[in-house]
Design a protein that fits this description.
- The chain has 186 residues and is of the alpha+beta class.
- The protein has two domains: 102 residues, Ribosome-recycling factor (Topoisomerase I, Chain A, domain 4, Orthogonal Bundle), CATH 1.10.132; 67 residues, 2-Layer Sandwich (Gyrase A, domain 2), CATH 3.30.1360.40.
- Helices cover 59% and strands 15% of the residues.
- The chain contains five helices and six strands; from the N terminus they run ααββββαββαα.
- A hairpin with a 2-residue loop joins strand 3 and strand 4.
- The longest helix is centred in the last third of the chain and has 38 residues.
Length: 186
């Protein structure tokens, strides 16, 4: 394994971490009902964990409502149970053919709670990025001690890993800022 391989692997891990934070943020509801809030929820469908978006049409006819229309009516109870057990805090209405989720307007206190949740998510992402950075630096140091890379290359590699870490932390911070502004909108 070369230093470039370590950098490539590190960047891949950091991208996955950023994507995880992005996905977690999309699950935090703002003042608007968005299909992304339920699309990736998994249900046990014929002994297989399946996301709702593969079992139903998910739409948002207006800013306060989400409709879930399963293609297989037998799945409606499982979808309803998954929504009830989720952290959305919404009780679904089931008319036998579709599930309707009506989102009440968020109170100021609830908005602030969601902002705190987002801050925690972003901090977990930053901690993961720093952990990835530490692992990459240890691999580079080990390669240098084994004589596979020069000391200059070790410093260049560590510098590249730091730049990568800084870039992804900035992206997570920008994501947090956008989500916080979105949550504060009335």
């Amino acid at each position: 394994m070369t230093a470039k391989d370590i950098l490539r692997e590190t960047e891949g891990k950091m991208k996955k971490t950023f994507e995880t934070v992005l996905r977690e943020f999309s699950e935090v509801r703002t003042g608007r009902a968005q299909p992304a809030l339920v699309e990736d929820m998994h249900i046990n469908y014929y002994e297989t964990s399946t996301p709702i978006k593969q079992l139903a049409a998910v739409s948002s006819p207006d800013p306060r409502q989400i409709l879930v229309q399963p293609w297989d009516i037998n799945a409606i109870k499982d979808i309803e149970a998954a929504i009830l057990s989720s952290k959305l805090g919404i009780t679904p209405t089931n008319d036998g053919k579709m599930i309707r989720l009506v989102f009440p307007p968020l109170s100021t206190e609830r908005r602030e709670e969601f902002i705190k949740v987002c801050k925690d998510m972003s901090e977990r992402g930053r901690v993961t990025l720093r952990s990835i950075r530490r692992d990459a630096n240890e691999k580079i140091k080990k390669m240098q001690s084994e004589g596979h890379v020069s000391e200059d290359d070790k410093f260049k590699g560590e510098e590249e890993v730091q730049k990568m870490t800084d870039r992804f932390i900035k992206e997570i911070d920008a994501l947090l800022d956008r989500k916080s502004k979105e949550l504060r909108e009335v």
